[in-house]
Amino acid sequence: MKSVILTLAVLAALGLAGAAAVVGFGLYNVSAAAGHLPGVSFVLHTTFRNSVALRAPPEEEVPPLDDPDLVALGAGHYATACAGCHGVPGAARSATVRAMVPEPPAITEAVAHWQPNELHWIVENGVKMSGMPAWPARNRKDEVWSVVAYLEALKTGTTPEMPSTRLAGEAYCRSCHGEVGGPVPRLDIQTPDYLEAQLGAYLSGERPSGIMAQAASLVPEERFASLAEAFSAGTAAPVDEAPREGPGAELAWRGTRAVPACIACHGTASEAAAPGRKGPRLFGQSRVFLATQLRLWRDGTLSHDRLMSAAAAELTEEDIDALSRYFSATGQ
Amino acid sequence: MLAGAVVLWLFVNGAFYFMSRIRPGRFDQTYAPHILIGGGIILPVVILSALLVWGLGILTDPRRPGDGLVVRVTGEQWWWRVEYWPEGATEPIISANEIRLPAGQRAEIHLTSDKVIHSFWIPALGGKMDMFPGRDTMISLAPEKVGTYRGQCAEFCGASHAWMAFSAVVMEPEAFDSWLEAEAEDAVEPAGDAALRGRQVFLSEGCGACHAVRGTEAVGQVGPDLTHVGSRQTLGAGRMALTLEDLTTWISHSEALKPEVKMPAYDLAPDRLDDLARYLEGLK
Q: Quick check: is B252 in a domain?
């Protein structure tokens, strides 16, 4: 018995010394050209597939993905964030990308094997040691679904035309803002100061958004002010009398014992983005965007303004629905 | 009542005197059981029952449907939402964190709560009464002496339970009537430049999302109504005095002064903070 233990201890020590030598003297060859030893690729890939299958959200959580705005937003993000490695459908990928280990699959081929819930997990979490990055913002599953919507549309061949991957600056911004509705907000109704501050907050991650962090990182920070100026065109028609009847209006103007009145900080419809107001203008904003943002505030994902965090804390789903309908219906 | 007591006293002491002094010695065994049962059980039962019926009959019912003032108080975390319903009123006069009552008159306090159980207690004026979410309870008070009494939440209700207090102000009936009339009015116009600027600060900082100042565009309902906040005796539901200095301290440090309070502490420039405090202090 004693000799068995002794033998095992000696073997363990030799093993440790061997491992230390491999790490310490650089004996393992990390060359991508040399590739993996036989069988390793199979083990890694099988681990990857099973890990995704185990962790993907249940299929019931997949929202409707055929909304054209959602698909278009996903396409716009894909154009600058994903196309570099996974390519654009119908076009060849660069020789350099194809020399990566592991080689990123061309997108049409990559999506063919996965269900939407699995694609969501992969896009949100990324894959370690494969070059596939995680979504740049935490708790933004809503944004990830837009990319999944685009990928699902790819499977059925119903994708919209993708914005050019070479767009830059204002042209890139405008490929979504102004073109796409739904989850993409209107910017023309806001003040330049507000828009500039948001660009900074997106870039720093203070306001978490994977899509906008990516977009803001493509523009030099010095240009934020001029971009904000360009988008805050003040084109929104001022609305003199927003209706003050109905559940959404009542909540917006008077609030309840649990919910503060939105108007007090966000201003009335006729004051188009009044400079004295604390919050962004809401009248005329996209319904889907408003509803999504309110949920993110309520759930604590957005927390860069203490007043808004407190204001949204007790919103119910009915409140959010009523408010987003009310504000989006006026001031278009 | 007194006569009955005297008769009973004379009877008991008379019997004692008779047994010990006038006719000491063994008592006749044939009468003993009758005297014990009759005098020890039947007589007291009859007398006490009669007294009970009579006594209940003359007891005033503190819960009888009242005439006169109704004050509806809702327990919030951690303050008091107060509504005055004078006789015949169709809508309430809204106030907060202070309860005023006319001396020598009965007032009904209707109690309820928003989220958790609180307890309404003005030790100098009456007993405690719990306040339950979704249920109404009632206590009636008829304070006699003019003065200011402290009220306090008497049921643990969260982090700032100890800071959930209020003043109960008992006034001469005429003074109370004119006070209530003033309380029903809209807020007074700010007097002076600082207060005018303060109103602008109040509105542009979004205070009106949670607080109402009647007569302005501030109509929020989350926090206490501030229409006449300047006329109250305390600030932050009994937390501080209502002075300029305490107002600025409260606005800039509410979360430190009252743990977990909903009102965020405001980081305002000193001159704007001062203007705001002057505006609020002027809301008499």
A: yes
A-chain residues within 8 Å CB-CB of B209?
Answer: 255, 260-265, 311
pLDDT number for residue B118: 97
Q: Are residues B23 and B117 in the same domain?
A: no
Per the structure, the count of domains in chain B is 3
User: In B, which residues are within 8 Å of A303 by CB distance?
Assistant: none
CATH code of B214's domain: 2.60.40.420
Average pLDDT over chain A, rounded to whole?
Answer: 90
Q: State the pLDDT at residue A56.
A: 96
For chain A positions 297-326, those within 8 Å of chain B (CB to CB) are 306-307, 310-311
- B109 inside domain: yes
pLDDT > 90 in chain B, percent: 75
Closest Cβ opposite residue A261 in set B204, B219, B262: B219
| Tokens representing residue A249 in the block | 């209006």
B178 shares its domain with B75: yes
B91 and B131 in one domain?
A: yes
B227 with B273, same domain?
Answer: yes
Nearest chain A residue to B211 by CA: give it: A260
The boundaries of the domain holding residue B157 are: 66-183
Q: How far is B242 from chain A (nearest CA, A)?
A: 24
Which residues of chain B make contact with A263, given a CB cutoff of 8 A?
A: 209, 217
To the nearest whole number, what is the mean pLDDT of chain B? 92
What's this model's pTM, rounded to 2 decimal places? 0.84
pLDDT tens figures, B183-241: 999 999 999 999 999 999 999 899 999 999 999 989 999 999 999 999 999 999 999 99
**3-class SS at A132?**
strand
In this structure, the answer to whether residues B251 and B151 fall within a common structural domain is: no
The string of pLDDT tens digits covering residues A10-63 is 999 999 999 999 999 999 999 999 888 899 999 999 999 999 999 999 999 999
